[in-house]
Fold:
Amino acid sequence: MSSFAIFDTSILIDRLRYGRHVERMHGLGMLVRPCAVVIAELMRGVQDKEEWKFLEILTNSPFIVTPTTSIWLESGEILAQIRAEHGFEPKKLRELHFDVLIALTARAHGALLVTSNGTDFELIREYRDFPLEVW
Structure:
């Protein structure tokens, strides 16, 4: 059993912009902790004052989980393996990098990662296992 959950960027965008996942989020029955990588991704695409208010709440949390130096280094190793085995171009590897960081951070903390981006995270799980739930 995971100690807490981390919502991936895709879940939070679905919730903020389209009102999706509200009941599932409330019914998860676990503590939720923000991840610094997810916050950075959200900041990159913020569109309005409501989203900035939400980000302010996340960034003021005393419980933000962050990738360590070893997670950063491991993410590079995984991306090198993915490139070698799948032949992905640098653009696709850059797109995957934050997802790898989020996945490894969740794994390091024993957290459940909740996403609506199953394809990329299932690929990452081929290289490192971590608790995952796809909505």
Remarks:
- The CA atoms of residues 17 and 47 lie 10 Å apart.
- The radius of gyration is 15 Å.
- The chain has one domain: 5-134.
